[in-house]
Each structure stands twice: as C-alpha cells, then as structure tokens.
Amino acid sequence: MTRIYSALSLFKEGLTGQTGWKQAWRSPEPKASYDAIIIGGGGHGLATAYYLARNHGIARVAVLEKGWIGGGNTGRNTTVVRSNYYYPESVELYGLAHRLYEGLSKDLNYNVMLSQRGMVNLCHSTAEMEIGARTVNAMQINGIDAELFSPEDVRRVAPIYNFSSDARFPVFGGIWQGRAGTARHDAVAWGYARAASQLGVDIIQNCEITDFIIEGGRCRGVQTTRGAIRAERIGMAIAGHSSVLAAKAGFRLPINSYALQACVSEPVKPVLDTVVLSPGTGVYVSQSDKGEIVIGGGLDRIPSYAQRGNLPTLETVISGLLEMFPIFGQLKLMRQWAGIVDVVPDSSPIIGESPLPNLFLNCGWGTGGFKAIPAGGTLLANLLATGKHNDISRPFDLDRFASGRLIDEAAGSGIAH
Amino acid sequence: MQLFPCPFCGPRDETEFHYGGDAGNARPDGGDVPIDRWAGYLYLRSNPKGAAREIWVHMNCGEFFVMERDTLTHTVLSSAELGGEHAA
Amino acid sequence: MTASRLATGGSAIDRSRPLRFSFDGTSVDGFSGDTIASALLAGDVAVVGRSFKYHRPRGIWGAGVEEPNALVDIGGASPNTRATTEPAREGLVAKSVNATPNALSDRNAFLDRFSRFIPAAFYYKTFMWPDWHMFEPRIRAMAGLGKVDTDWTSQGTSDQINHHCDVLVVGAGPAGLAAAGLAAGAGLSVTLVDDQRKPGGSLGHRASEIDGRPAALWIEETLAALVGGGHLILPSTTAFGIYDHNLVGLNQRHFDGRPDTLWRVRPRRIVLATGAIERPLPFASNDLPGILSADAALCYLRHHAVLAGRRIVVATNNDSAYEVAEAVADAGAEVTLVDIRRDGMPDAKVRTIKGRALASAAGKLRVEGVTLDDGTRLDADCVLVSGGWTPTIHLFGQARGKLAWSEARAAFLPGDPVECISVAGAAAGAVSLSDVFAGAERAVASLGQAKVAAPRSTGPETTAGIVAAWPVPGSKGRVWIDYQNDVTVKDVELAARENFVSVEHLKRYTTLGMATDQGKTSNLPGLALMAGITGRTVPEVGTTTYRPPFTPVPLASVAGARVGELMAPVRRLPLENVHRASGAVFQEYGGWLRPAHYGGRGADADRAIQDEALRARQSVALFDGSTLGKIEVIGTKAAEFVDFLYYNTMSTLKPGRCRYGFMLSENGVVFDDGVLVRLDEHRFVVSCSSSHVAAVHARLEEWRQDRFGRNAVYIHNATSEMATLTVSGPNARKLLETVGFGLSLDDASLPHMAIGRGVYAGDEVRIARVSFTGDRSYEISIRADRAEPLWAHLRQAGQKFDAVLIGLEALMILRAEKGFIVIGKDTDGTTLPHDLGSEGPRAKRQTEYVGRRSLFTEEASRGDRLQLVGLTVPRGEAPLPTGAHGIKRRDGRLYSQGFVTSSYQSPTLGQPIALGLIERGAARHGETIEIQHLGKHRSATIAAPCAYDPAGGRLNA
Q1: Over C485-547, what HEC string results?
Q2: A148 and A260 both lie in a single domain
Q3: Would you place residue C357 in the very low, low, confident or very high pLDDT band (cuts 50, 70, 90)?
Q4: Does residue C890 have a pLDDT over 90?
Q5: Are C62 and C128 in contact (CB under 8 A)?
Q6: Which of its termini does chain A have fewer beta carbons within 10 Å around, N or C?
Q7: Which chain C residues are within 8 Å of A114, Cβ to Cβ?
Q8: How far does the CA of residue A149 sit from the closest CA of chain B (Å)?
Q9: Are A208 and A191 within one domain?
C-alpha cells in the first residue's frame, strides 16, 4: 500500500492503475471512551485532533462528525488565508495560523495548495487611506508583513479593476499583505484528517451529538446517534451550530448565527492574480486555480440556520463585483451556496473552557474561520491537553464579555471580516 | 426573498426589515447591576435553530414588532405589535 | 462521422435565410433557426472542444442545457457559451474553449497520454516540493475554459422585473402546456416559462398526436388560448432558482442585442414540468466525438434536418431510443440498434442486436466503430446512446423537496410534496403522453375546477422499459462519467478506495458534477457507481445538494441596473449645483457628496485648503453644513428621553439653549457627539454627525418604542428638509446683521450656545450659536428649497468682509486646531467618554442612561486606556501622518501606544497640529514619544488637544 504522497509515488501508482493507495483516513467504529473527544469534523476539529496527537502525544482521540468531514464552513468558504489584523491579540492568533499554513502541505504530506498571491484591501477615500495607514503601521509594529499601496500599486496587482474616472468606489490605495492568499479548502480538512488518522485518531462520521453526559456538574462525555462516548475532556468546534449544542449543555453564548453566501462563476483562463477586497462594496474576490471567479460578500442580515443562497444578497454582491470589475459582466454565475456562521459581537473567536467544566469551546469565528484553522486546532488541542490557556488563547476566553476587554477588529481598524 | 408581515404595513420584502434581537431581553437598569447580568443582557443570545421569537423593525414605517419564525425553514409563524416587549 | 444536412425538413430552420459564421477560424454555413451546435453538426465538424483536464477531443453530446462539451467563446459576448443553446448568427465568431490553437489540433492534447499519472485529485499528492508556488502558475494557465475579453464593455444594463401570478408553470413541454391550459381554464392567472425558443418540448421531435390532431396544432391552440386569456408566456427563459418563500428567479434571453432580463416571480403555486435529461451509457472511450445523446440526435434531425451520421449504431437500455433508431434509418442512415435487454422491448424496424452492451468505442478524433461486450465489432461514424432518463428535479430539490428512488425508472423522482409546488410530466417520472397529461391534471387539480377538458393522447405512446445500465467497477478501458471535468470510472473507484465514499466527498474529490453543466448527465451515473463499489443502494449513497442556478446565469442579469450610484447612492446637498458653480471640488464624506474645497485641483488642493482655513480665522467663512443631523424629539417625556439617550444630563437645559454631549452605545462606546437644542419645554433637536443621522434616528426610535411608549415621545427626522448654512469668524455677526433676520443678534440676546428664531424672506429660520471652529459662529437652518437665495445673499453680503467659502477640509483644520473631535476619526469602536476627557457624568450622574453600566467594567477602568491628546512637532517639520503610531520598545520588540487620528498644517499657527489617541495620554502632556509610520521614525510631544485659543476668547470676539 502506498502511504506517502509524492510525485514518485504518484508515478509508481500510475504504472499499476492507482490501485495501491490507502484510505485517506480510517472510518472505525466508535469506542466507548477516549482521552478526548472533539465534536465537529471540520477543519478546526480535525486540526485539533491532529495537534493533540502530534504536539501532545494524545492519540486516544475521537472526532465526531454529524455528516461528512469538511462539510460545514470548511467546505463552504472563499478559501482566503491572511493575517492582516490590527490588534496584537489578533496578530498573535492569525499570525500563528498563517505561519502554520505556510508549512502545512509538507507538515501533513498533503498539498493544500496554499497560494500566496497577495491580498489587497482597497481604500476608497482619504479617510480610508488614513485608516489604512493606521492598520499597516499596526501590522508592521506587530511583526506582520504589510504595505500601504498607492493607486499605481493596486493597478499593478489588479489591472482589471475599475479605474475609470466615474467609478463609484475609486481607488485611493490599499492595504497589501503579500503573504496572504488562498488555499484549497477541502484539502485542508482531508489533509488534517489523513494525518490525524495516521497518528491513531478515530474519525467518526455520521455521528450526531444528541446530549451531553454531565456528572457532578462536569461534562463526562456525549450521547450520540452511535451510542454513548465518554472522555476526560471534550472540545467543540462546530461552526454554525455552537448555540445549538450550548443549549444542550445548558448555557448561552454571545452568538447569532447568520448565513454567509458565496458563489463562483464559470471557470475562465487566469485574469485575476490576487485577492481583492473592497470595503465600499463589501465584496472580496479571487480566482481559483481551476479558473472560477470566487466571490464573497457580507453576511445575510437575517439570523438563519438555512444553508441556502438567496437572491437579495446575491444581487447586492454581484452588483458590487461588477462595480469593481466591470469586465466580469460577461461572466455567468455557476454555483451559489451558503454556510452558517456564528457571529460574536466583537467578531473575534471564543476559545476556552465553557461554563460547563471539561467542555472546551472553539467557536465564534464568524466569517473568518478558515484562515485560522491551524491556530484554532493548536489552541484547542492545548486546552484539551493541559486544561489551561496559553498566552495566545487567553485573550479570547469567554470571560472577555464580562470584563469588557473585547477584541473588535472592526472597531480598531475598519478591516472587513 | 422572504416576505415578512409588518403588523402595520402587511407583507413586505425582507430587505425592508432589520433584526433587533431576542424578544424579551429586558434591560437591567442601574450602575450597580451585577456585571454578569449586564454582559448577559448585552451579549448572550438564545440563537435557536427552529422556532424563534425576535424583535424586528420595519425600516420603512419605523415600527418595532415581535415576529415568531423558524430560523431553519424560514417559515414565518406570527407577527405582532410590541406589547411591553423590549425592543433592544 | 459524416453528419449532413438533409435536403428537406427541419421545423426550426428557415432555408430562405442562410447564414455564415466562423468556428475556430473556419467558416460554417447554416440557416436562420440553427444553433451553433446544429450548424456545426450539419457541417460535420466533429471536434468542437477539449476537455478540462486531459484535453480530450470532444464533440457535441446534447441539444440543450445539459451539454458538457460544446462550449465556445463568442467574441464580444460571453465565454463558455453553450453551442447547443446559442443561436447561430451571421458573422458570429466562435472559438472552442480550452484548446490552443484550436479544438482539432490542441497543443495540450499530449496530456491525455499521461492520464494514468494524473488521476482524480492527483494534485493533492504532489507539487509540494520544493513548493506549490513553483507549479501553480503553469497549472492555473492550463485550467479554466474560456477566455475573458479584457476589452469587453457592457452594452446596457439588464432589466429586472418583479412579477406575481397564481400559477407559474416551468417548462412548456406537453406537461407544462397541459397544466398551463388547465390552470388558465380554472380562472387562474398563469405564467408559463420555457428555456427553449419554441415551446413544445419533446412534442417538437417525438411523434405524437393529441385529441386526434397533430401535436403542433395542439401546441399552437394552447398557446393562443393562453395569450388570448392574458396569460404570460416567456420562451427562452430559464427558471434557475427557487428561493425563500417560493420566490422563483428567471433569466430571460432576447436574441436582439438586449442583455438578459431577470424576473423575480412570486407565484401562489408552482408547477414544475421541467422534463428529463438523457444519460450516457458507460463504455470505454464513450467520450469520443460522434457519440451523441440519442434524443439530441432526434432533435437535430427534426428541428434542423441534420442527420448525425451515415452508419449509426444506436445503443440503449430503454425504449426511448427505438423511435430515434427508426427516424435516422428513415432519413437514410444505415442503422444498427444495440439493446442491453434480451426481451420486453418494442419491435424495431431496424437491425437489432439484443442483450448486448457496448464495451468500447474506437477512433481518435471521432468515433470509427464500436465493440460489443461479446467482442463483435461494428463500424460506425456515429453512435447514439440512451442510458435512460434523469428527471429534471433541480428546482424541486432547491425547494428542499425530498427525493424518492424509483427502481422502475432507475432515477430519483420527487418524493413528499413541497407546499405550493407540484411536479408533472417526465420530471415526475411520467413516460407516455397519457401519463404526462394525467399528471398535469393532478398537478392543477387542487387549484380549482378547470372549465376546459384535459388533452388526450391519441397517437403513439412511449414506454419506459428501462433496465439500469450504470457504470460498474472494474470496467476495462476509460469510461467517462463527467465529460467536461474528465471523471472516469477509475476516478470514482480511486475515490472509494481512499474513503471518499460520501457523495459530497466524491464530488469534491473527483470534481464530478462540478463543471459548467453541474453534472446534469453525470451525477446519477457517478453516485450509482459509488453505490456499486461500496455495496450500497443508490438512495443510500444519496445525492448532493441541488444549488442554484440550474444553468449558469449572466452576472449582468443578477446585477441589473444596480451599478454606480444606483448600487450605492450618495447623498447630495440641496445646493450642490451652486457649489459646483463656485468651483467646489467634491468628495464623499460619510455617504454625502460635499465640497472638499473651492478651487485648486490636484497639487493646488492643499494650497486652496490652507488659504480657506487661514481666511476663515481672519474674517468670516461661509460653510454649507446642511448634512448636519436635525432630529426632533417632541413630547411630554422628551426631556426624560434625551436624558436617557445622552451621557450628559440634558433635562436641565433651558429652552432656547444648546448643550454639547455624547450618545453612547450600550457597550459604553461613544457612538455620536453633537449639540442638543432645546426649543421649548417638550421639544428638542438632536444635531448628530452627518454620517450618523440614519443610525441615530433608528436608535432614538428603538428606545422610544421600547422604553418610553409611542405617545410619550415623538421622533421626527428633519435633516433633509432643512439646509444649514454656517457663518463663522470674527465678522460673522456683522455679516448676519447686514442680512437681517428679524431678531436681535447681540450677545445678550443670542449668546454662545443659544438659539434664536428669525425670518428670512418670509420663511422661518433657526439660528444656532454653536461653533465647530472655535470662532463666533452661527448655524442658520432654513427650508432646503429656500436655501439658495439665502446662500446667495450671504455671499453677496460677505463680499464687504472678504468672506471665504470653505469646504470640509478647511473645516477639519479649524476644528482640529481647537481639539474638537470627529467621531469615527478621532475615536474608534473602543473609545469611552472618559477617554475623551469627559469624566463628569460617569463620576456623578445618578440617573440611568444608555451605556452606563459598561463604563464601570474592568476594561473601562484600566489605567492604560488610549486617551485623546494633542501632538506637536517642531515648527518647520512636516505634519505627522494620520495613522502613524506612537511606539514603545520593550524586550527588543515594538508595541503600539496609540496613534495619530487627525493631523494638519495649521495656517493660522504656522505649524503642524495633530490629535491622537495615546495610552495614558491625558497624564502625559509634555512627554515626547517615538512615532512610527511605514517603517520610519520621528518624535512628537504630547499636548492638550486644543492648540488654538484655549481660553475660548474668539467665541465672542
């Protein structure tokens, strides 16, 4: 059986009809108990399992997934990876994720196609340029790569943007992060799943949590559609459903769930080589390696758990896209979808122990969870292994809502999430 | 495009409405409200999957009202004027 | 393949109107009524494109929206246009996609020879060393299909139409026409849409007779009755999505140069009569050009008089291909019918081989023959296949309809009904015309009593008789499932081997069904194969989610007229044109288009701004402050209300007086600042920031309704009703006195922070003595439509005082000299009132106000909060860049200790001034700190925010 992925193994397998490949991950029956259970087989959950095994040597771990792994927001996002954040706390968090992403393909032996093609957040007015400068300076001070782009710089990286004199959102410049880019979202989930499985982690699909086992005021395991499973510590990384399981565990979260839509055009030959975000339209766009124009916009404004697209938001987003890139008016919309995102008042994640002891949270990433997967996994793994925060996760604890120490990037820098 | 029934204007497009939060999230007054209670009022939400009871405002007429709807199917169950409900 | 145009026939073409277009640089002849595909087929153009991954030569497969292969770029139009649905036009220039230089001789065709090394998802297993970035540019260049025309310009905006009806019928085949006729007969308003140019669906090419007459006649009569009854019929219109609350999105094509039209239809009830799509059969090399859907070949024959080949093998697993075999034989082809079944099929009038399936096809650029599973070889220049029918239930699926597996039909059919949606015809699994009509009757039965009779099928009846022929594991050769994305049986097997057995994993791992056709011909065979490999039934494997759009929709259609200002309107001043005439240079500020400065474009702008700011201090300035919020709060509880809304106590304000204050959010953050005017006991005017008017208004309404009751307080937003013209400077009062407003302007009658009511030209004016410049200022509010004469009068009167028009940029300098803040610029989303030096209410107020409790959290009480300060630099240095940070160094690392929020050269002081939010800044006046901007360092000294006239003497000067 072929275990290692490489050009050579692919060549060898090519000679024998690609028949020697192992399962990317095993699908074992769940055991009665584990050292740790992770609820949610998305990127964050699978990464947590992987880092638990790799960083902490804890491999008696189960990842419980209601459907199929990577089927939630991991497989529904616009694949942007970036760390252009304002506050030091955010920079530590997303910077960690970004660095781990940069080594992820080799680390996992799975090509997640991290494409560091750069990202520009446009500035459409003098005022936005001032905020842009504030942001770029903060990033540079905090050790993150950033440049303040002139209109000419923007033209260089995105020549097809609407630079006409009557553009509704003219370009005064932009915030550039060269290390930003995109990654293949499904591959991140599959890569972590494969690596975790190889280290002994059990990935259990089609396993829905029906209740928590609570004894002596502490969480001791979960009831599932595939039976009771007990564990010393339980982690939860179920973007889009955090409040639902929190209710089962007996507490509320500072979360509202909304649909976030995205769509792609038909595939075309390369025409846009970078990621472009316009705060004026709220639209961000990139071109996938396959050639599709990948389009994202703002949240739907109606709390929802329905993972379906709709027309009003689509119309707003596409109008914005065509304002930014009029030549995309010749393209056609190929697929439209939605994911459910858990939005926290300060748009920063919640990482830490929940009000139910032994149950640990990794939630509330809002629209920005994909880019943080390696960090979310590392930090939740650390919490599950040690029961304690480290310096990076500490500021993101649930207790910040009572202390008032929110980490609101929008408040600080005006960067859209 | 969802249709929401404004108790004052009848069924209107969803784009005319703005979400105002959980119904019944009463504001605790006072400078000495326990901070957990205050944080709960400010931030904690029921966020149910399924039937929800929410405050909405119809931006065209400016009136706040209570709407019950299903957050999964998007079926609207009822809407009514504020009756001592808190809008915030 | 030697396809050809027959000498006669073709219901869709007009032989009197020949046309010529080019494909891949060669000229193609056709007739009006041809599609690009039918003309290419008539011209025997076999290779029309290349597949996505292996660059395999591909020919036309279908005759409709399901087409996976025949995509072309059309100059000046859209990339990836389906040749099967695009009308041929004189002079049109079409180019195959994904082929260099052309489809016939594609430079990248060599890739197919390496296919064994690049199976599904191979890219996840390689290209990691040394780095993906080494490979990505080449791979990107290989990927993608059509080319974006970078010189393209929009030919006008798409119309968008909202539409209501009782019944929306999707599909104008026999089921849809019958349903529409019956619904109309029941007195309901009907809208009938069909994606073909000509309604009729299968009746257009399948033999049929209705009510004893040719189907064509019935179609005509049904349509005529609908039109006569005032019902709407939309041909060339695709229902692409069913959205929340059954809103249906339609995209209508026009073919007259107009861009497509988007319809948003809100029907009471939807009848889906969307038909079915024919599937391919699995055999090796089943993707060769010359292998077509049997039904498509019949379409081309009947509609376009195109015979797809001379020596045709028809292969099938069901009865529907029999009619095709006989028709192409009648048209002169030599036909062999190969049926997988041994018995139970109709009698055929052509040579038939029973109980055999195709094992493989042979040929390089076009099919040359087939081998049967018993080794028999048959020569052929064309192979027509029918693998059965997949009901088109995408819209039903989008509406969250559950599907039910039918073994008899070898397909998913609509399951439990969805509220307000019926499915009829082939989409519901009906095969014979009689069944179709019966289904249509059922679909509309619940809507009301039809006063017309349902149509009856009196002609030949189609039967199903299908025996499933799914792709099977272990197939020899390369058996294609998804043509466009090059997914073969081996790829699905690989996915299964690697545990990608969930249908969504299968799709994502192999890209099955993710091409521009979204798997219309491939999804079901793919998941049936997965079922076979994993020992599950097809329904156990399940289907992927049906997502809109059904077929690709032009982005321009979705956007409609929402471009430029129609997408994001700017707010405009009543006096905009007057300012333009005065040479104003406009910029957008918080959604308003306002004069930035008067005169001085480009490099001269700074000089103009400096000049305006300087002259404003010297004599008098005129400023259009109409954007300022003017929200009236009226009622018996108005005073109590404003007390609650403001951080500062406002109820102690005397009528006729003004007070500056903050509004907070419940999290304590300063949301807005401004002056509150008390007109009388129960009437206040909230002057909020220009960009916050809507938000402040909403907030006032919210608290009014939540806490004070509808009848205790009334809110009225008068912002756009009134213009506000500001006169500021040492000579402001003198200027106003020359205009005369019928009230005394002396400082005893109208002191600073007082308001007076006067009259100008018969209109009431309010004159508020509030100052954002630090100089004596008067804000005159007047009906917006009467502002122009007053402005002209002020300007004319100002000549004597050397009055200067100032734009917002000069005002920014003037207010910054005074240390006056702009919310959102000199504050951010964390700024609390005491950060701005306003500690009093927090310390003293005993009554409740918005945000109160949040001012006493741990965070709000920290000693190292960012506080508002002034920042000075030595005379002669350039102003600090706004956005620069104050830094501190610790353990070899840099830390921000705040930032510059406003910074200008002060012409009055002759030196730079700046405001900033700096850690513990209020206690650090006089301290010099290091400033960093874009990697460069300099220093600045912390000072009080007010740099000019700190004693405030100029307010009354």
Answers
A1: CCEEHHHHHHHHHCCCCCHHHHHHHHCCCCCCCCCCCCHHHHHHHHHHHHCCCHHHHCCCCCC
A2: yes
A3: very high
A4: yes
A5: no
A6: N
A7: 132
A8: 35
A9: yes
**What separation in angstroms does the CA of C490 have from each of A97, C526, C529?**
36, 11, 10
Distance of CA C52 to the CA centre of its chain: 26
Sheet holding C755-760, edge to edge: C755-760, C763-768, C777-783, C722-728, C621-624, C804-805
The CATH number of the domain where A339 resides is what?
3.30.9.10
* Phi and psi, residue C152, nearest 5°: -65, 140
Q: Are residues A178 and A285 in the same domain?
A: yes
Q: Which residues from chain A sit within 8 angstroms of residue C79, using beta carbons?
A: 266, 268, 330-331
User: A280 is in which domain, residue-wise?
Assistant: 119-182+256-343
Per CB-CB distance under 8 Å, the chain B contacts of C706 are: 27, 64, 82, 86-88
pLDDT tens-digit readout, C66-123? 999 999 999 877 899 999 999 999 999 999 999 999 999 999 999 999 999 999 999 9
Q: Please indicate, yes or no, whether residues A140 and A170 belong to a single structural domain of this protein.
A: yes
For residue range C382-439, what is the model confidence (pLDDT) as tens digits?
999 999 999 999 999 999 999 999 999 999 999 998 999 999 999 999 999 999 999 9
ipTM, two decimals? 0.97
**What domain count does chain A have?**
2
B46 chain-A contacts, CB cut-off 8 A: 243, 247, 252
**A355 — contact with chain B (CB < 8 Å)?**
no
Based on the fold, state whether residues A272 and A148 are members of the same structural domain. Answer: yes
Domains of chain B: 3-25+41-81 (3.30.2270.10)
Which tens digit of pLDDT belongs to each residue from A346-364? Answer: 999 999 999 999 999 999 9
Residue window 484-523, chain C: list those with CB within 8 Å of chain A: 490, 494, 497-500, 502, 504-505, 508-509, 511, 514, 516, 518
Q: Of chain A residues 278-337, which have a CB less than 8 A from chain C?
A: 280-281, 287, 289-291, 306-311, 314-316, 318-323, 326-337
Domain CATH code at residue A88: 3.50.50.60
- Residue B84 confidence (pLDDT): 59
Which of residues A343, A359, A387 is at a domain's end?
A: A343
Residue A110 · residue A5 · CB < 8 Å: yes
Dig out the tokens for C762 from the structure.
């018969």
Decide: pTM greater than 0.90: yes
Statement to judge: residues A268 and A173 lie in one domain: yes
